[in-house]
Amino acid sequence: MNIWPRNTSIENGEIYIAGISAQDLAKEFGTPAFIIDEDDFRSRIQEFRSALDITFGNENSGIFYAGKAFLSVQIAKWLAEEGVGLDVCSGGELAVAIAAKFPANRIEVHGNNKSAAEIRSAIEIGVYVIVADSLHEIERIEDIAKQLGKKQAILLRLTPGIEAHTHEFIATAHEDVKFGFSIASGAAAIATKKALDATHIELRGFHCHIGSQIFDSNGFDIAAQRVIEFMAEMKAVHAIEFPDLDLGGGFGIAYVASDTPQSIDSVINRMHEIVLGECKKHGLAIPHLSIEPGRAIAGPSTVTLYEVGTTKEVNLDGGQRRNYISVDGGMSDNIRPALYGAQYSVQLANRTSTSPLTSSRVVGKHCESGDIIIREVELPSDVKPGDILAIPATGAYGRSMASNYNHQPRPPVIAVRNGQARVILRRENAADLLNLEVNS
Ligand code: LLP
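Above: inputs. Below: predicted complex with LLP.
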């Protein structure tokens, strides 16, 4: 499986992204740096869009890009240009959308504990929908909408009771989880009644998101079946057919060549088949179908460039040796290996090497043994300080989960397209890090 952005080429051992060499990018913008192939990012939105157009139809389906995967003002502008919606899950993400002048009526608001201020600002600007996650929140939305003299559209987030096959920390739809209203326990039915009784709320339908980095479509199938069955039950009780169904995100991508995610087309085709079949079975009209891909749009578009600072060979039990290659970033720009045991691939990006491959570990510069980017990889034995390493598929949950641990400035994001590079998020500097200090 290809793990590089679509406009990547390799010439004489040098990696080029959208026509610009990794070496030139590193020279001009420094390292570490996230390099985003703008056309790759846009092309994945277009793929989701055309798969939905062909199946559910353009008017009857929507995409809300999950901003948590990676969001900046420029990204919000690309989304607006591509004609898709945005899922925000905090006041901060909403602020980015507002700064980008993103159309409010294409924003969906998530979060299991939205503050009153977040709800107020969402209602004030006129977001398309708020996805309610608890009874407290239904009350809060009702109160605030009433104060503002508005009626707010909402969806209810449901927990269909699915054990999705992914890392425990990114599975979200089993029973013992903080998200959503359980269908099985009756909580979802109670929430539906409460939302219908609220006078400043328009309950448009239901949402579920079963987890992230999912390869196996079975979980999506069962989730859709259970939510549609629930919609039929609610129709029977309340005599209302809800117009909206949102099946969330979670579509997996390839991080290493052996990963085999399904194509966007096949995921959407399957979803269409299931939704159609279930609606027919329960005598429901096909609802407006939304999805919230984050990783599958942002992830494959981006490569992280690091510069090698030091290398060091250590002896392992059994007489083998391992080359520790330290780069100038690490867990502050990619927490995923430490947090989820995530695997990545790496390539020497600035030259070819004919040296024999040797067992290597790519590590960061942080003060932790667990600051490992790639635990075990064969790399040429002559990798040396000053070399550039490229790690693909870092566009989702890399920069967005980056931290200032060890007072490390967060890396920039550089958009490349047709041989041109431009900074869309600049590198932090010492002044940024000191900005919050209050000298009394
Ligand atoms: N919708 C909802 C309600 C979500 O909670 C999420 C992700 C998405 C959509 C987008 O999921 P995606 O298509 O990106 O898989 N930090 C973790 C992933 C956490 C995902 C949280 N929610 C990671 O790095 O793997």
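The chain has a mean pLDDT of 96.
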